Amino acid sequence: MRIRRVPRSAIAPGALVDGATLIFADMAYQIDNMEGLSVYRNQQGEIILTLVSDDNFSALQRTLLLQFRLVEE
User: Fold this and answer.
1) I need a labelling partner for 20 at 20 to 30 A (CA). Which of 5, 44, 57, 69 fits?
2) Tens digits of per-residue pLDDT, 3-39?
3) How far is residue 64's CA from residue 17's CA, in Å, rounded to a whole number?
4) CA 36 vs CA 14, 53, 59, 70, 72: distances in Å
């Protein structure tokens, strides 16, 4: 799984976009099969990323709900 920050100005029909990697996780972190992403600003003005997956009824996968706060540098 990778979450990248892409400038809004880079998004256009047919554009090939890329951006800084904010989060990278793979099976070394027991992360697999992420299927949903919600991004919102909370009452404190912080940007919150919420990710969700399901186990697809598989013993090899898990249902996960992960939440991160974006920290600006």
Assistant:
1) 44
2) 999 999 999 999 999 999 998 988 888 887 789 999 9
3) 28
4) 23, 7, 20, 17, 23
